[in-house]
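During the no-cost extension, the postdoctoral fellow (Dr. R.K.) reprocessed legacy sequence entries with the updated structure-token encoder. One reprocessed record is reproduced below for audit purposes.
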Amino acid sequence: MTYPAPFYSASDQPVAIASPGAVTAVDWEQRVDFARLRADRYARVQAGLMQSEFGALILFDMNNIRYTTATHIGNWARDKFFRCALLMRDHEPILWDIGSAARTHQRYAPWYGERSWQAGISSWRGSIPETVGVEAGNAARLAGLLHDAGLAGEPVGVDIAELPVLRALERAGLRIEDGHGLMQEIRSIKTADEVALLDHAAALVDGAYDELYRALRPGIRENDLVALVNRYLYENGSEEVEAVNSISGERCSPHPHVFSDRLIRPGDTAYFDIIHAFNGYRTCYYRTLNVGSSNAAQREAYRRAREFMDNAIAEIRPGATSADVVRHFPAAREFGFASEEEAFGLQYCHGLGLSNWERPLMSRYHSFEHPVELREGMVFAIETYWPTPDGSAAARIEEEVVVTPDGCQLLTRFPADQLYVAGTRYWTGADRPAPPAAPAAPAAPGPPAAS
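Re-encoded structure tokens follow.
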């Protein structure tokens, strides 16, 4: 698949990426260009800063830090909030990282100067008491850099922060505003390289579902299937498997969002959500399968979920709005919930990128009153759900799409047009297909023709 003209680099030149699904760089064609990816992302951030009220951004969210600095030290950093990046107008970023990582960046991340990579320390989620003064010292350092850059009086956007950190920044004289909204807006339009990486991440899940289809059978447990998916993804280049939901049988309705050690049984519906990252770019990708057989109620539940999906996809094009999409989703009361708040997360769309929670996010809860316009280069997942009348099963489908000039393109390709049945096929004497007829024996040679 070659990405069409709307996917541009920062120089506004159309980009085509060859051999999607290949991960090795070669000299004979243009594939994903990571130098261009880094440059394009930071150019978007600087353009966003220049168009905003902010003089600078202070970032603690690990996905915002990766987007702006192109550094990554693994999922280990996810919940610690000790990395901090400062982005000032017309300046290279400065990242304070754990000391050994900062030294590694200085050696192997030459896209910014050594000043961009500095050792720093945080309170480690409050493990170091506030009386030690870590928060105050960091705030004073940030305020000093902003003063030296002539930005001391400008509003500063912060994405996420612990309360002691936020209060220390304000005591240092900084006017703090919400910076995460700006980063969400900047990240909502993907470049050609980002789309290619999202496509490859989805391709890995295509393969994981083929493994699941072949392994799914009565007697296997939900957690066995989670292990299988993790192994397949890591062996095939996944950077991080964030979650694998594995849900079966009566656990499908209501959706518990977590796997168990339940044994799969004949006739069960089972659905899965596979969330992982390839070079940082994530998937959120549901599929529903039945085991051994399916009944009319299960097939009808799937048909309904697929109908919602197909009607929503038909609306997607530049200039359409989130309200156009979500009007095809069922209202909460139609499938057993009292309000859209209670049903939230079962029929909705959410942006994909370095995070699973990017813009646009669309739902019946808010999109009719607050519609957003769809634009070329947006990438998002669409999720639909429908239970059987007796609550013994439910269908869950998810597709990932990229908005193109005249509609959208699917990134998710494992078959989902109907409810597929995996596992052993059981035959009775009456319905087992007859073996193919033996080929007719060749005719015996006749007498020689008379001369």
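The domain at 192-422 is CATH 3.90.230.10 (Creatine Amidinohydrolase). The radius of gyration is 27 Å. The remaining legacy entries will be reprocessed before the final report is submitted.
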